[in-house]
Design goal:
Number of helices: 5
Helix content: 25-40%
Radius of gyration: 40 Å
Shape: rod-shaped
InterPro entries: PASTA_dom (IPR005543)
Keywords: Membrane, Transmembrane, Transmembrane helix
Protein name: PASTA domain-containing protein
Strand order of the largest sheet: 7-11-8-9
Pfam families: PASTA
Number of strands: 11
Largest sheet: 4 strands, mixed
Distance between the termini: 161 Å
CATH class of one domain: Alpha Beta
CATH architecture of one domain: 2-Layer Sandwich
């Protein structure tokens, strides 16, 4: 049988119809499989993971068919428990498909250390701006007789005198001892009131 006759024969069209039917069935089965695999049409509400420890959040997501991915640790926030989740993406109540990754950031365990710069000998105005930029707080201010007014004479924390290079926790409070600008006058007063102590002279007869 020639090719032309075969292509126009009933046998060819019969085989073609069978082949077409097989393709349709295979496509239908494949689409059904993909629907089941991806839970087509089924979406899962993302739970609120805020303030949860990573392990607990991970278990909760796994129960829902979701995956937790830890991105980073953020600077310590005192309004959140240490090592708890502070940010998540997607946000809570968004709907996602099964197997979706939920990205989170975790609170640090405590405040970071800050290296104390040279503060002694500077004016309090200079120092105030400096410590605020470092995330530190101003505490108690006391004055001591000194020639220069508001010059920083000492920096302390909980009674301990600090120096340049010491480490303190971010967000901690520093106390300051400042000059009162009155030492010059106090010295004048002291000079006026100064008395001379004479050494007793021994009697010549003794």
């Amino acid at each position: 049988m020639s090719i032309v006759k075969f292509l126009t024969s009933k046998t060819f069209f019969k085989h073609l119809a069978i082949a077409f039917g097989i393709v349709v069935v295979l496509v239908f089965v494949l689409l059904k499989f993909l629907d089941i695999k991806t839970n087509h049409g089924e979406e899962i509400p993302v739970p609120d993971l805020s303030k949860m420890q990573v392990k607990i959040a991970q278990e909760k997501l796994e129960e829902l068919g979701l995956e937790l991915i830890l991105l980073d640790t953020v600077d310590f926030r005192n309004d959140m428990p240490p090592y708890s989740i502070v940010e998540q993406d997607p946000k809570a109540e968004n709907t996602v498909k099964n197997g979706r990754k939920i990205y989170v950031k975790v609170n640090a365990g405590e405040y970071d250390d800050v290296t104390l710069p040279a503060l002694k000998g500077k004016t309090f105005r200079q120092v105030s701006a400096n410590i605020k930029s470092l995330g530190l707080k101003e505490g108690k201010i006391t004055y001591k007789p000194h020639l220069a007014k508001d010059e920083v004479l000492a920096v302390t924390q909980k009674g301990k005198t600090l120096k340049a290079g010491d480490k303190v926790k971010k967000n901690s409070t520093l106390d300051f001892v400042l000059g009162d600008g009155k030492e010059f006058y106090d010295e004048q007063t002291f000079d006026k009131e100064e008395t001379t102590i004479e050494t007793p002279v021994e009697d010549a007869g003794e």
